[in-house]
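Allow me, if you will, to draw on your knowledge of protein folds for a short while. Thank you for your consideration; the sequence and its tokens are set out here:
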Amino acid sequence: MAQFTCEICGAEFEQKSRYERHLQTSHPRQAVSAADIEKALKGVEFPKTRGELGDAVDNDEVRDIVEQLPDQEYRDAAEVGRAFGELRTHEKTPDNQPSETGGQRAMQAPSAARFASLFEGMSFPAGGEELKRHARAQASEQERQTLEKFGDHTYHSMADVTKELHKVQ
């Protein structure tokens, strides 16, 4: 009876070295992909620094990749994926890509989704001052400036908040 059995295909080996060679040649480990990174970052709230991303990832292989990324703040998982692509290909992605341009425009104005997260747990209807007070602790400086432009009238739902956000931007 063989001492070593491959758990993947059932092949049997008497010598450990042959078993290990079999694993390396017949069943090589798959490299970490952008999809693996995206899956590992699911549920992570951005923006995050490289160090914060490493702390948020449970998968050791993905953490090793994240720790090799440039030391910067990442706005979203797409930006992490772009940095991963640059790391993997050793080529800098051109700065004039549509996602870069769109990302810059998006960063100039807070998103409706981000504002919705600021008002999580908020009871409606609510006045403008109540909205500002509720969101102030979590809001960035830019988001607080946008909130200051909100009118002090009654907001009946997040839909009203979203409409106001579009008006003031």
In short: The mean pLDDT is 83. Residues 144 and 166 are 15 Å apart (CA to CA). Residues 77-89 form the longest helix (13 residues).
